Amino acid sequence: MDNNNQAGWSSKIGFILAAAGSAVGLGNLWRFPYIAAYNGGGAFLLLYLITLFTIGFTLVVLETGIGYRFRKNPVDSMKQINKRFGFIGSVGIIAVTIILGFYSVVGGWIMHYLVFAASHPLSNATQEYFQSFVSRPVLPLLYTVLFLFATAFIVYRGVQEGIEKYSKIMMPLLFVLLFGLVVRSFFLPNAAEGLKYFFKPDFSKINSMTFFSTLGQAFFSLSVGMGIFITYGAYLPEDKKFPIGSSASVIALDTLVSVLAGMMIFPAIFSFNLSMNAGPTLIFITLPKIFASFPFGSIVGVVFFILLFLAALTSTISMIEVSVAYLHGKYGLPRSKAVIGYAIFCVVLAVPFSLAFGLWSDVKIFGYNFFDFGDTVASNILLPAGGFLMCVAVGWFYGAEKLRVFASDKANAVFALMVKYLAPAAVLLVFIDAMGWLK
Ligand code: PHE
């Protein structure tokens, strides 16, 4: 088995928590509530659930099944189907590398804000403060290096001793903190209004555009299309039966975090009559402003940034592991060298992403700064391309039923149809939408 001379997961729960760690990230916490708010609340939620458990599920099972059957890194696993399909794995690895580059910049910001929230009144975390921090040339980069170091440290220790062990601590902690914050939100004036808005379905907001944002969000949130599940699937213990329930659990946990994030954020926004933003504005400006007015707000702020830190870290771990598995398979590099070499490479890669907020903010590629360009290329182009190509390779050239992921032949036949037709068609639509060709 190609798992860097180390044992794979010691148990299914190890796989579930590590894979859920990959899926649960900033996508759930800073993007999901915003998309839900603007796309019909409960109606969006319903659509999202349906999408996740049909197309999302197909892609997660497909990737995990590829890794489980071929037991190799994404490139070598795809080569088992056809020697010329190795490039499909490479597309994923390139996407992961770019995402890691900008994700760790945000990871660095989170670490800085954690330190800040612990040592300053939160009311100082203003818009101006955020702007002046992210535009500095060196300090944010130092935090990015620290964040990458934390990620590399865990991956360096191995699959079982590093990723699995730490996921088993970090994921439960993440849930506890998130529950705590949701409960805190419940006690805010107007909390009910916020919750009502989040859960009340407004079907008039549902249209084809909503459907595409739903799919796009589902792919990014599940971390599919990049070979992460191939890599993690290869570390599953070989058994008579493929652990299909584990894939479902990963999706369920990812969805649960998204829903809880909504239940934490909506009441807060409604109580303070603020408008819902996505991304950095939401987590670094709007929410700290809200926490600042709470009694013991600093504690809430610290808990919140620990939560974000855990969510981001368990995602970046999976990104490094994909590339480490590949470097090991391709060049025979031992884990230690692969991790150190790749982490250093990522530090260099993070430089333009970080400087995009200051010194190099005027440098534009196709009208985007470095950060947005990287995000767009990886999330909107490479990720759907990777997912699409995997579906085509397995669906049309191999036969998804041969992965034997389900116990019954009938279920495998349905799965094969999903992989062959429904999933690639859906991915293609998301891609076309992301390119703006439908507008
Ligand atoms: N799924 C993660 C999130 O929602 C993002 C991610 C992308 C993780 C790519 C791993 C790989 O934030």
What this model shows, in words?
The termini are far apart. It is built from 17 helices and no strands. The protein is mainly α. It has helices at 12-23, 26-38, 42-70, 74-81, 86-119, 127-134, 139-156, 159-186, 191-199, 208-222, 228-234, 244-271, 279-292, 297-331, 335-355, 370-398, 409-434. Phenylalanine binds at residues 22-23, 25-28, 96, 99, 220-221, 223, 226, 228, 315, 318-319. Residues 22-23, 25-28, 96, 99, 220-221, 223, 226, 228, 315, 318-319 line the site of phenylalanine.
The residue fraction in helices comes out at over 70%
Number of β-strand runs: 0
Bound molecules: phenylalanine
What spatial form do the alpha-carbon principal axes imply?
A: globular
Estimated radius of gyration: 21 Å
Structural class: mainly alpha
Distance between the termini: 47 Å
Q: Treating each run of at least 4 consecutive H or I residues as one helix, how many helices?
A: 17
